[in-house]
């Protein structure tokens, strides 16, 4: 027994040594090595693993480290999983310690960090660089600026329409709709041909469904279009929203697959890849999957067409960009600004476009022929989108933080008919009113 | 060899009992078999018809899993963190369990109640304070941070098991040791500990499984490959708009095998000690 006791004590001491000999003791900070003055930027990111942007981030990190060799160096910290990343950054915000550079993504992290007074004002840095400043148009301002000050810089745009299966459309004798009446008529004709029209979902924010819903709201008239361009709306009990919700309820009950109620994006995507449905709403990042034979059949990509929404609407809003956070070391803040400028530069956006078909956030970024040749479906979509007069942000992009979870949790009740459209809108209104963003 | 002839009623009961056991085995094994089989399917096969057998037995999922995430490194980290936190947990809580089971002191039940109450605090409520404490201690991104946190997280269940295990040992045994001249520590180490072997194994297995499977704090308190544990690797295979279920199921297969092996080896001790102390007399 004495031997066992000794073993346990030895183990405990060994563990203490392992722990104390850990790699680092700070979540994020610069490391001025003894031999050089190189500043290390620890950059946590969810754009790793299966994430479509992972190759782009890896490439940009490599280029940045080469360009700033000896001065700045980025050390990537993998935070796999989008929601995991958002959760971790939120905890870091609450503790007041953020990494030097944070990517806001679709998680409204900028406002949370601003509320905690942790964000560096980029206005002077942007104004000092004409190329950088030229990218800040009206849509950028609503995404990355607050009270006339610039706090973030975007690299990726959200230019979103919907994809359709040309073969299934031909079977039903239809073409992409130009009006919403024509869209619902198309759905009826697809049903008559024995084809399920739409891929829909309810879980994980119901991405595909909320895109369809937002497009209907925007296409309903001036009130709806204004709603789709209003950040953090608190009143969802307006006719254009209630009417669109009623249509979504009908689509859930008649025009989609059984697994839509309770299903997530991957179920909706699989239904489109498997040719179980004729249409899916999603962005250009999906294009690569059309030729992935682990997800679909050989030659499927040739069957896919792309269209903007009826009424000439297209989603067009940059994704909340990167921001620099306040650090005790001003040199680290400078390094963070250099990184944000590099990662959101027109050149970096072109790299993302040519590598993964990611739509640039900046209107001034040239769409190169290399990209158009590599992603013909994207080229077709960009051409269609260029003539769209109605534009807006996504519905979840407009919602107050946390509302997308309530939206997602309440959708099954709407789909099953347990909630009326008015009741559903009241739930959204109640949450948004109780959690306004000032 | 003697043969007993069963009555029709006994035969029916036996058939029913076998059917029931088969059902239990099916329910227990189905998820494991399904995960292993899914690791050989394509994404399309998994999502379109989850119950069908794989069209081909390809190991590409395992190859992709190992390429996309540093699973082997995470695996080693998990082993170190899980074994260390389990050893610490059992070592400390065996002493606490013995005292709570056999000694009388003021506010004993109140203190035990407070320690047990920590079991009902949701981990999300602990995230921010634990993160702050660990960073202030300069233990962020170290294995020691996870070892300490897991030791604490597994405290209530280990304490309950070990208290029951020590309570089930007859007090006469302890008294006999004292009469023979053994002191407090000698009685604990040489008399009580061997008798509570089942409880110790049970607490150790549950603490190991708890540490092996933990995700939230592993994500929050670590940032580098050198400290991260296996559950995090599973998040590499799905993101908001992309997924690779084949690789994910391959990674899950790699991740759950040690848990299954550990539980299989110690299953008798775990089951017996979980019911120890429940029957008096």
Automatic annotation (TrEMBL), chain A:
Q: Which residues form the signal peptide?
A: 1-25
Record flagged with keyword Metal-binding: no
Return the InterPro entries for the record.
Answer: Bact_solute-bd_prot1, SBP
Q: What Pfam families does the record tag this protein with?
A: SBP_bac_8
This protein's UniProt keywords: Cell membrane, Lipoprotein, Membrane, Palmitate, Signal
Q: Which domain of life is it from?
A: Bacteria
Q: Which PANTHER family match?
A: ARABINOSE-BINDING PROTEIN-RELATED (PTHR43649), POLYGALACTURONAN_RHAMNOGALACTURONAN-BINDING PROTEIN YTCQ (PTHR43649:SF33)
What is the protein named? Carbohydrate ABC transporter substrate-binding protein
- List the source organism: Dysosmobacter segnis
Q: What is the lineage of its organism?
A: Bacteria, Bacillati, Bacillota, Clostridia, Eubacteriales
Automatic annotation (TrEMBL), chain B:
Subcellular location as annotated: Cell membrane
| GO BP terms | transmembrane transport
Give the way it sits in the membrane.
Multi-pass membrane protein
Record keyword Transport present: yes
In terms of domain of life, where is this protein from?
Bacteria
Coarsely, its chief localization is membrane
Domain ABC transmembrane type-1 as annotated: residue spans: 75-266
InterPro entries reported in the protein's UniProt record: MetI-like, MetI-like_sf
Q: Which residues form a coiled coil?
A: none
Residue ranges of the TM segments: 12-37, 74-98, 110-132, 144-162, 200-222, 242-266
Q: Which cellular component terms (GO) are annotated to the entry?
A: plasma membrane
Q: Which UniProt keywords apply?
A: Cell membrane, Membrane, Transmembrane, Transmembrane helix, Transport
**Pfam families under this entry?**
BPD_transp_1
Instruction: List the PANTHER family hit by this protein, alphabetically.
Output: ABC TRANSPORTER PERMEASE PROTEIN MG189-RELATED (PTHR43744:SF12), ABC TRANSPORTER PERMEASE PROTEIN MG189-RELATED-RELATED (PTHR43744)
According to its UniProt record, which protein family does this protein belong to?
Belongs to the binding-protein-dependent transport system permease family.
Name by which UniProt lists this protein: Carbohydrate ABC transporter permease
């Amino acid at each position: 027994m004495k031997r066992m006791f000794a073993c346990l004590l030895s183990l405990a001491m060994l563990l203490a040594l392992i722990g104390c000999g850990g790699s680092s003791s700070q979540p994020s900070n610069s490391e001025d090595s003894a031999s050089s003055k190189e500043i290390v930027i620890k950059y946590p990111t969810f754009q790793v693993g299966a994430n479509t942007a992972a190759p782009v981030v890896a490439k940009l990190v490599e280029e940045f480290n080469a360009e700033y060799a000896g001065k700045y160096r980025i050390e990537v910290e993998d935070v796999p999983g989008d929601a995991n990343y958002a959760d971790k950054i939120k905890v870091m915000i609450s503790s007041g310690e953020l990494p030097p550079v944070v990517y806001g993504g679709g998680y409204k992290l900028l406002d949370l960090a601003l509320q905690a007074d942790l964000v560096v004002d980029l206005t002077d840095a942007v104004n000092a660089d004409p190329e950088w400043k030229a990218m800040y148009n009206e849509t950028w301002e609503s995404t990355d600026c607050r009270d006339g000050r610039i706090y973030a810089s975007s690299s990726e745009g959200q230019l979103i329409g919907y994809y359709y299966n040309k073969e299934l459309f031909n079977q039903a004798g239809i073409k992409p709709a130009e009006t919403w009446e024509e869209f619902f008529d198309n759905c009826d004709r697809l049903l008559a041909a024995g084809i399920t029209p739409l891929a829909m979902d309810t879980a994980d924010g119901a991405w595909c469904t909320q895109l369809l819903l937002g497009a209907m709201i925007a296409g309903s008239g001036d009130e709806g279009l204004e709603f789709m361009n209003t950040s953090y709306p608190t009143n969802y009990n307006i006719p254009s929203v209630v009417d669109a919700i009623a249509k979504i309820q009908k689509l859930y009950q008649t025009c989609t697959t059984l697994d839509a109620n309770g299903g997530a994006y991957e179920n909706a995507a699989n239904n489109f890849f498997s040719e179980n449905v004729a249409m899916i709403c999603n962005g250009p990042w999906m294009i690569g999957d059309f030729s992935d034979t682990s997800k679909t059949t050989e030659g499927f990509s040739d069957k896919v067409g792309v269209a903007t929404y009826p009424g000439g609407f297209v989603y067009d809003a940059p994704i909340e960009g990167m921001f620099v956070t306040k650090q005790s070391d001003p040199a680290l803040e400078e390094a963070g600004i250099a990184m944000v400028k590099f990662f959101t530069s027109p050149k970096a956006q072109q790299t993302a476009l040519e590598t993964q078909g990611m739509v640039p956030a900046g209107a001034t970024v040239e769409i190169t022929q290399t990209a158009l040749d590599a992603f013909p479906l994207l080229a077709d979509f960009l051409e269609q989108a260029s003539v769209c007069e109605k534009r807006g942000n996504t519905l979840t992009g407009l919602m107050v933080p946390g509302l997308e979870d309530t939206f997602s949790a309440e959708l099954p009740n709407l789909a099953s008919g347990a909630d009326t459209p008015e009741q559903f809108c009241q739930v959204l209104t109640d949450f948004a009113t109780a959690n306004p963003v000032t | 060899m003697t043969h007993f002839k069963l009555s029709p009623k006994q035969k029916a009961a036996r058939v029913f009992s076998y059917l029931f056991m088969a059902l239990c085995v099916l329910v227990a094994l189905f998820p494991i078999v399904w995960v292993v089989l899914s690791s050989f399917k394509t994404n399309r096969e998994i999502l379109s018809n989850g119950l069908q057998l794989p069209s081909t037995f390809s190991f590409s999922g395992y190859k992709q899993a190992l390429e996309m995430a540093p699973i082997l490194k995470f695996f080693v980290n998990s082993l170190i963190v899980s074994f260390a936190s389990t050893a610490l947990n059992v070592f400390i809580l065996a002493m606490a369990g013995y005292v709570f089971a056999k000694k009388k002191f003021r506010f004993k039940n109140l203190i035990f109640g407070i320690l047990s109450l920590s079991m009902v605090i949701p981990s999300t409520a602990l995230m921010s304070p634990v993160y702050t404490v660990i960073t202030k201690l300069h233990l962020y991104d170290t294995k020691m941070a996870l070892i300490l946190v897991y030791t604490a997280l597994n405290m209530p269940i280990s304490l309950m098991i070990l208290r029951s295990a020590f309570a089930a040992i007859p007090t006469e045994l302890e008294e006999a040791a004292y009469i023979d001249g053994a002191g407090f520590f000698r009685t604990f180490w040489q008399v009580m500990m061997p008798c509570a072997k089942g409880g110790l194994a049970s607490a150790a297995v549950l603490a190991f499984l708890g540490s092996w499977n933990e995700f939230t704090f592993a994500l929050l308190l670590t940032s580098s490959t050198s400290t991260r544990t296996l559950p995090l690797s599973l998040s590499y295979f799905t993101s908001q708009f992309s997924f690779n279920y084949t690789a994910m199921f391959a990674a899950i297969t790699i991740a759950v095998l040690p848990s299954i092996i550990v539980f299989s080896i110690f299953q008798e001790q775990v089951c017996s000690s979980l019911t120890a102390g429940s029957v008096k007399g």
